[in-house]
Backbone:
């Protein structure tokens, strides 16, 4: 992913995190205020589907019922053409349980507007996606957290997809790019210096 796209993604992620706790009316008010303050003319970046797709790498499909008059409707961060979870996982082609859980978490966030999830949410979506059953969902979820795909959520008992997990899933099915993201964003483990006696 080009460096400019990385910066765009990071900026969007920060903005979304700040707006997430607010209701839709307050979000719209803030976005409109920012556009006015920065003198951004409509249509803005939010209404440009090509920019949205280049950042998030999800193809936009056009249905037979599409109405060209609706093409200028602003696109929300989570608003995407509906794609079944089974098709999403088939396209992403995860190879391990940890990767599959990351893809399921990504789907929950971007297609179900559910950025905070519990292990049960992932298991239910896994079944809906017609994937093989996880032998031990709790262990698999803990492994995903250990590998940096999940981080604790602000909601008690829940988790959320990490920035690395998000970027990793976006790069799939290109395994080389996904692994590059994983290596680049992997946090070095802290080494505790030996204590002197």
Residues:
């Amino acid at each position: 992913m080009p460096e400019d796209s990385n910066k765009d993604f990071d900026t969007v992620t920060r903005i979304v995190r700040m707006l997430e706790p607010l209701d839709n009316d307050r979000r719209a008010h803030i976005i409109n205020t920012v556009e006015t303050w920065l003198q951004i003319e409509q249509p803005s970046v939010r209404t440009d589907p090509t920019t949205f797709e280049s950042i998030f790498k999800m193809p936009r499909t056009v249905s037979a019922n599409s109405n060209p008059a609706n093409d200028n409707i602003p696109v929300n961060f989570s608003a995407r053409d509906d794609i079944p979870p089974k098709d999403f996982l088939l396209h992403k082609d995860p190879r391990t349980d940890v990767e599959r859980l990351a893809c399921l978490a990504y789907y929950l966030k971007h297609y179900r507007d559910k950025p905070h999830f519990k292990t049960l949410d992932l298991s239910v979506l896994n079944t809906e996606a017609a994937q093989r059953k996880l032998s031990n969902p709790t262990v698999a979820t803990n492994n995903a957290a250990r590998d940096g795909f999940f981080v604790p959520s602000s909601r008690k008992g829940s988790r959320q997809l990490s920035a690395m997990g998000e970027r990793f899933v976006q790069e799939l099915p290109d395994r080389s790019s996904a692994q590059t993201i994983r290596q680049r964003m992997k946090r070095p483990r802290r080494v505790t210096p030996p204590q002197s006696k």
Q: What stands out?
A: The first strand starts at residue 150 and ends at 152. The first helix runs from residue 3 to 19. Strands lie at 150-152, 159-161.
